[in-house]
Amino acid sequence: MCALESGATGVVGLLLETEVVDVDPTSPTQRPLLQQAIEADHIDTIERLLRDLRLDISCRWDYNSPLLASIRAGRDPVTLFVLSHGGLNDTRTPSGESALLLATREGSLAVVKEILKDDKVDVKSIDHQGWNALRWVAREREMEMVRVLLANPRTDFHSVDSDGQSALTVAEDYGQCKMAVLLNQHVERTETRLPPDDSGTLK
After folding, report:
1. Quick one: which of 56, 79, 86, 160 has the fewest CB in 10 Å?
2. Would I find Repeat among this entry's keywords (predicted)?
């Protein structure tokens, strides 16, 4: 639909009111309307689409969804909008990447922070290579994103892939010296931390 790509929200609204527009086409040559609007970066048009009861921000199209489409397109403002309207679900890419993994690989710090606010998100999820979010950012030198992940209590720093690689060994193998130092410092802090007593407080 040309109106979607041009951001003509008023025209989109008029077309939707005719109720003859297929809002979620299954044809392999035509992308769903939400996906088109997301890729075109038109939040006003997306908002108008979502007022149509036939559309659902948490829907999925095979290995895609509004959230994955916006992350993949690098549209952080749109992605944050989708998240704020309940667009987070467990849809994965053909490579097995969750929204968190994809946002991590795309380097979307604001999106990663927002996704981690949901306690139900599986921070330990892995892709088809057995890599989790922490290993990805350790390889890519995303220092601030590593700090965000390490600050989350659900992140498993010691987890390894099928080759026995942890985030630390990945950083070392890829020559990410500053990253390796940061990860080592995290190990030292966690290993020197005293265990809690029976009341749950640190001794």
Report:
1. 86
2. yes
**How many domains is the chain built from?**
1
Residues pairing with 61 in the sheet? 64
Q: Which CATH number covers residue 175? A: 1.25.40.20
8 CB burial (10 A radius; 0-12, 13-18, 19+)? middle
Angle between helices 143-151 and 109-116 (to 10 degrees): 0
CB atoms inside a 10 Å sphere around CB 18 = 7
Global pTM value: 0.78
Residue 86: inside a domain: yes
Domain extent at residue 48: 2-192
In one-letter notation, the amino acid at residue 76 is D
